[in-house]
Amino acid sequence: MARTAVSGRLATRLRWQAAALIERREESPTAQTLAFDLPGWAGHLPGQHVDVRLTAEDGYSTQRSYSIASAPDADRVELTVQRVPDGEVSPYLADDLMVGDAVEIRGPVGGWFVWRPEQLEPVLLIAGGSGVVPLMSMIRVRGMIGSRVPFRLLYSVRDPADRLYGPELDRGAPGLDTTWVYTRGTPDDWARPAGRLTPDDLVRWGWPADFEPTCYVCGPTGFVEAAAGMLVALGHHPDRIRTERFGPSGG
Amino acid sequence: MPIISRGFHGRKPDPGRKLPPGQYETFDFPVLSAGPTPRVSRDDWKFTVTTESGARHQWDWGRLMALPAERPTVDLHCVTKWSKFGTHWEGVSLDVLLEDVETEAEFALVHSYGGYTTNLPLEDLLDGKAWIAHRYDGEELAAEHGGPARLLVPHLYLWKSAKWVSGIQLMLEDEAGFWESAGYHEYGDPWREQRYQGD
Asked: Which CATH number fits domain B40-192: 3.30.460.40, 3.30.70.100, 3.90.420.10, 3.30.200.20?
C-alpha cells in the first residue's frame, strides 16, 4: 500500500511466453546462437537480457538469464549460449534443444547496461569471452539505425577458436574499431603477444578519458574487476563505466 | 499448461534445501555490480543515518567496531537466480544503530560509496532482520563483496543488501533506488518471486 508511492511508474508484469527455436548457429566450438520466435515481441534495448525457463516432463523447472545478442527484428530474438561444463542449463540449450522445440522466455529486463541510440558520446566496449554478447547487440543496433557514434571494441579471448561473431566483426562497419586481445594463443604473425588485457591496451585501443566515452565492460568477474579498475586508474569517471559480470555459476 | 522443453531433465535440487521459486543453489559467491568496485579505506569510512527532519547520526569505523556485533548465518537469494545457503557474517544490527534515532519515517533509501542506492520499508531493517556487516566467513569483507561494510538484509533479494554502504536516509515517502528505477521490483521478496516491476 504505502509502496504505491514508487509505483506511479509503469508496472506491467513481464509475462512468460512460449518461444520456439527457429534456427541455431555455431559461433565457436563451445557457443551456439539460438534464434527464437517470440510472437508479439515488443523489442528491446541493446544490452538487455531475458529470462529463460525450462520445464521437464515431470514438472521440474528452472530459470537462467541470457543476454540478447541480436538487434530488434520483429518477432525474432537471438541469444548466444556458451556451454558451461557441468552446467544444468547451458549444455541442454547448446547441444540438445532442436529447431521446433520450445522454451519459455520473459523480458526484456534491465535498464542500466544498455546503449540508447540517443547517446551521442563515443562508446568503449570491453568484452571478456562470452561477455561480448550484449555488446554485440549494441554494435548491431548501431549498424541497423545507421548511427555515426564512434564505437571501439576491445575483445579478449583465449585464442582464435574462442572468438564469437568473428566474421561479422572482421567485416566491421564504418566508425567501429575492433581490437582482439588474445590471452593464450594468437593467430600467426600477430603483433601483440598473448597475454591478459593491460592498461597499455586500453591507452592504445580505447578512448582517452577526456573524450568522456561511456564504457561498457562485460565478462567474468575477474576480467571485469581488472578492466574497470584500469579504466578508473586511467581517469575514466566511475559513473561512465557500466559493468555486467558473468559468475562461474552462470551455467 | 506449462511448456515442456523436450528432453530437458535438469538437476533436481537437494530436497533438504528450501529454494524460493525460480532459484537454484550455487556454492561459490558470484559478484554482481553495476560499475567499478569503489575502494574505501576504513580510515575514511563513515556511516550516516539522516532522518526526515535532517538530523544526522554518524559512525566512523572505530565507533562501529565498538558496538556489539552479531554473527548471523543466513541464506542469500540473488535476483539473477542463484541462492547460497548458510553464509556466515559478522555485523552490527540496525536495531542497535537506529536505537536512539527519532523518526516518523516509514521508508529508507540506502546509499553506497560509488553512488548506488536501494529503497525499502524501514520496518524491513528492524527487529533483527538487517545488519551493517563487516566480516564474511571469518575474514574482513572483501571490496568486491562490499567491504569495508555492506548492508545485509537477507530476507529480500540481494540487491537490497547494498555493498559499500555509506548511509541510510529515513523518509516519509518512498523513493526508488538504482535497480528499482531500472525495471526491478520495488520490494523484492524472493519467496513471492518479486524480481521485476509488476511481479
From this structure: 3.90.420.10
